[in-house]
Amino acid sequence: MELWYTEKQNDNLKLSCRVTKTLHVEKTPFQSMAVLETPGFGRALILDGIVQTTVWDEYIYHEMIAHVPLNTHPSPKKVLIIGGGDGGTAREVVRHPMVQAAVMVEIDERVVAASRAFLPELSSGLDDPKLDLRFEDGIKHVEACENEYDVIIIDSTDPVGPAVGLFSGGFYRKVHKALKEDGLFAAQTESPLFDLNFIARINDDVGAVFPIVRQYLACVPSYPGGLWSFTMGSKKFDPVLTPPASVPELPYRYYNKSIHLAAFMLPQFMQDFLGRG
Amino acid sequence: MELWYTEKQNDNLKLSCRVTKTLHVEKTPFQSMAVLETPGFGRALILDGIVQTTVWDEYIYHEMIAHVPLNTHPSPKKVLIIGGGDGGTAREVVRHPMVQAAVMVEIDERVVAASRAFLPELSSGLDDPKLDLRFEDGIKHVEACENEYDVIIIDSTDPVGPAVGLFSGGFYRKVHKALKEDGLFAAQTESPLFDLNFIARINDDVGAVFPIVRQYLACVPSYPGGLWSFTMGSKKFDPVLTPPASVPELPYRYYNKSIHLAAFMLPQFMQDFLGRG
Fold first, then answer.
1. Does residue B142 contact residue B168 with C-beta atoms inside 8 Å?
2. Domain containing B91 — which CATH number?
3. Using a CB-CB distance cutoff of 8 angstroms, which residues of chain A are in contact with residue B268?
């Protein structure tokens, strides 16, 4: 028997990967969840029918969402992670030598439980003594903070369902308040090829609150179209004008100092659309 | 009725796109060929069951395979294109203001005929007076040349079927001979995520003939995994050490001077594998 998982990435595009085993299926209070064993991508975490991460390519997304903001800030001592229930972002944050304390706020405790059970490569950092893991609403946590974090990383699902509020102008104002006076944040912000209007809207919303707003890119094979965007809002440090002074020696698989700079070099169609042509 | 084209990109991965019409199906002397109308990707050219190009994302591949080598060479007056039957690479080459003459050698006349009939966006450059279009074996053409070209672009299908010979060490020696003393070439060289051993072999084969060998990357959504590699072999100009002095003002959609530099910044896993870590 051949078993295939097929994700309808949009109305006109489907990605299918061979499955050897369905390891876990659950309806959590927030979303439907599955963990699949695949020969091509390793284990894959699916939320509401969308691949969140696979063991095969997760390092690209997690290194880029974590180390780009961490190394843009010269002293990322206190870090907040919103979402990221699989643990991959936390794993990258806690291994950064300058990080002294990280708070991770995940709304869905069941995602963390599934990752601990089935995705040890991702969840390995969740028990690090630097990490304070809380199961609560990221928006409420941010609302209660003022001048607290050097770096905030918003590792959310797509802007549907529980994550919608994490992509609003009102939320970015709260993030601004929760950051210290030289703080910055990064968030995953969908596909430049399929969602350029969305990225432009986020660019405007972040730009209305932060003096510096930049997009950066990486190619994540398990996401629609491969090319994926992240948006950074920063109070002081411009990643394009101030390249990372020092990048700690870590066993990166995708990220490095050159990639850090290259990721901010946008294709012409993005520059034109965002009015930077 | 829903009609979908499904490409088995490897044993464990399939990409499907919705099809509204099968515009053309043909068995040429060299390969099977189809042109499909798709709502997601526009018209798509399929050779031997593999998507070669789609109107929606072709600009990424064609701008990167053409303008990166053209702008690495300070004076790309005479250019050879091997393959590229859809015409997309020729379109980019002839619009470069420094190019005085381009020869395009395509083995399969039927691909050019189909592109002229169904893909005018790609084939538009094929009638340019700068272009000398020949239907013959690219390997034989290169064998007969000595000290003739400034830039050679190898725009081939995957290394199976008619294109196998275009990925051999012997062929790179012939390319070296066909180039002028400061000439350089670029070729598409498959996926770094799925074919890293292949890229390393090409790196060694090119490095055995050319003093400078570099890989560069772009994200092409219709290719497996998105991330795609190109390899450049150069006698004199190192694209990493000598950024393009001048990039002509053209209506690029993906390429620009920043992307030119960023494309050579390789992910750590590639640097490690190629011994440049």
1. no
2. 3.40.50.150
3. 252-256, 259
Q: Verify whether residue B48 is a known catalytic residue.
A: no
Please write the tens of the pLDDT for every residue from B220-257. 999 989 999 999 999 999 998 877 778 999 999 999 99
- The answer to whether B83 touches B5, Cβ cutoff 8 Å, is no
> HSE of A189 in the Cβ direction (CA atoms, 13 Å)?
28
Please check whether residues B215 and B198 belong to one and the same domain: yes
Give the CA count within 13 Å in the CB-facing half-sphere of B153: 34
pLDDT tens digits, one per residue of B184-224: 999 999 999 999 999 999 999 999 999 999 999 999 999 98
Q: Are residues A41 and A73 in the same domain?
A: no
Do A49 and A63 lie in one domain? The reply is no
Q: How far is A263 from chain B (nearest CA, A)?
A: 7
pLDDT value for A277? 57
ipTM above 0.90, yes or no: yes
Give pTM, 2 decimals: 0.96
Q: Do B123 and B8 belong to one domain?
A: no
Q: Tell me: do A25 and A116 sit in the same domain.
A: no
B9-33 pLDDT, tens digit each: 889 999 999 999 999 999 999 999 9
Residue A4 has pLDDT above 90, yes or no: yes
Cβ-based neighbours of B249, under 8 Å, separated by 6 or more = none
Residues B274 and B264 sit within 8 Å (Cβ to Cβ) = no
Residues of the domain holding B128: 58-273
* Catalytic residue (one of B57, B108, B150, B155): B155
B143 and B221 part of one domain: yes
B25 close contact with A: CB closer than 8 A? no
Q: What is the DSSP letter of B247?
A: -
Does residue A50 share a domain with residue A92?
A: no
Q: Does B38 touch chain A (CB under 8 A)?
A: yes
**CATH number for the domain including A25?**
2.30.140.10
